[in-house]
Amino acid sequence: xxxxxxxxxxxxxxxxxxxxxxxxxxxxxxxxxxxxxxxxxxxxxxxxxxxxxxxxxxxxxxxxxxxxxxxxxxxxxxxxxxxxxxxxxxxxxxxxxxxxxxxxxxxxxxxxxxxxxxxxxxxxxxxxxxxxxxxxxxxxxxxxxxxxxxxxxxxxxxxxxxxxxxxxxxxxxxxxxx
Length: 178
What we know:
Elements: H1 4-37, H2 45-69, E1 72-73, E2 79-81, H3 91-112, H4 122-145, H5 151-155, H6 162-171
Antiparallel strand pairs: 1-2
């Protein structure tokens, strides 16, 4: 069975994209329905401008995920390209987070009015926190590459490895790194 993993990836991506489009259509129709039926008296032009501006990133993310994740087939039905893994860690995971949060804000704005759009302001805060933690992790890993091992690690509070403990226990030797 040639390309079994690629075929599974294509099926998984197609299912994820189909579910994503259905949720997106349902939430946007819910917003429009609730705004016209229940919140019609409070709807202004600003309501629709907020909706358009703050839903735009979700639409662009959905478009991007469609572009990178959609499987491509040849005319004879053979799989040409399975698409990128839509469940991958890193940037794809972050895009899903932003998409889900945007959907949540759209649903809250549909149910509770324009003030719920303020929830959208947490996305840049989340982005800043994610960048800070990523940079902090990179900085710690780069410290090991810069020669910060052995005694400098112990001075910084890092515990010695099991091998170092055994060697010190046997002969009282301290492990020294060059």
